[in-house]
Specification:
Elements: E1 2-10, H1 12-33, E2 37-41, E3 50-59, H2 62-76, H3 80-85, E4 87-92
Antiparallel strand pairs: 1-3, 1-4, 2-3
């Protein structure tokens, strides 16, 4: 079972604008995959860009989930600048 972490930085104003789209995107992923997503922000951010973190736990079929995530991201219409800086890391239990 895998756990995926997707992170990127956004201006606080962009976070307010994009949060509904990000949450809708995650709702689509949850419906398609059964994975319960979370959207978090870095706690120690003081001014400047915010680091956002999408967390996807309990992924049993990584390839299928990756396709569902890519499709949801494409449908979300996220800005190209955000897409260019999204970074993903995948972990699994020891």
């Amino acid at each position: 079972m895998q756990h995926w972490f997707v992170y990127y930085k956004l201006d606080p104003a962009a976070v307010r604008e994009l949060e509904p789209r990000l949450r809708d995107m995650q709702a689509q992923i949850a419906a398609a995959s059964g994975v319960r997503p979370r959207l978090m922000r870095r706690a120690d951010a003081a001014g400047g860009p915010l680091t956002l973190l999408e967390v996807y736990d309990g992924i049993r079929q990584p390839e299928t989930f990756g396709q569902a995530l890519a499709a949801a991201v494409a449908r979300a219409g996220l800005p190209a600048a955000l897409l260019a800086q999204r970074r993903s890391e995948c972990f699994e239990e020891l």
